[in-house]
Design goal:
- Keywords: Membrane, Transmembrane, Transmembrane helix.
- InterPro entries: FixH.
- It holds the Pfam family FixH.
- The protein is of the alpha+beta class.
- The protein folds into 2 domains: 31 residues; 110 residues, Sandwich (Immunoglobulin-like), CATH 2.60.40.
- It has a 4-stranded antiparallel sheet.
- The protein is elongated, with a radius of gyration of 24 Å.
């Protein structure tokens, strides 16, 4: 076999490799964006900044505390400066897989606390985003949670 055939074999192998990579890339279907309507959310981001600023002004620390022994996530919406019952949502989302996301309505007890069981959530990194309105003031808080 002379060098011409060897070059031809190398070119055919290279083209086959590239075609295989293209086919794999086209067939990949498990790409999940964190949000489908990210452009509209980006336009309204100033409102999100204002809600986060409100949280920092009226509340101290994180809103959600994770208890490892009972695998519960507790939220405290009680505050001396902001009265009234909170209305909003708790969004648990997994950055690596949007199919595992959960939205839960805020339903507090008389003390302004809510406890969520976390046994059914997969281990790994989760983001907890809480959006609520309390006494006509909008709040938002996001924090990262690592479940063992």
């Amino acid at each position: 076999m002379n060098w011409g055939y060897k070059i031809l074999i190398v070119i055919i192998l290279f083209v086959s490799f590239i075609v295989t990579l293209v086919v794999i890339a086209i067939r990949q279907d498990d790409i999940h964006l964190v949000s489908k309507n990210y452009y509209e959310k980006e336009i309204l981001y100033q409102q999100e900044i204002d809600k986060q600023r409100n949280y920092e002004q009226y509340f101290q620390g994180e809103i959600a505390q994770y208890r490892q022994e009972s695998r519960e996530l507790s939220f405290s919406f009680a505050n001396d400066q902001v009265q009234g019952m909170p209305e909003g949502t708790i969004h648990l989302f997994r950055p690596s897989d949007a199919r595992l996301d959960k939205r839960i309505a805020i339903a507090t007890d008389a003390e302004g606390k809510q406890v969520l069981p976390m046994q059914d959530l997969a281990s790994g990194q989760w983001k907890v985003k809480v959006d609520w309105v309390q006494n006509n003031v909008a709040f938002s808080r996001e924090q990262t949670l690592i479940l063992p």
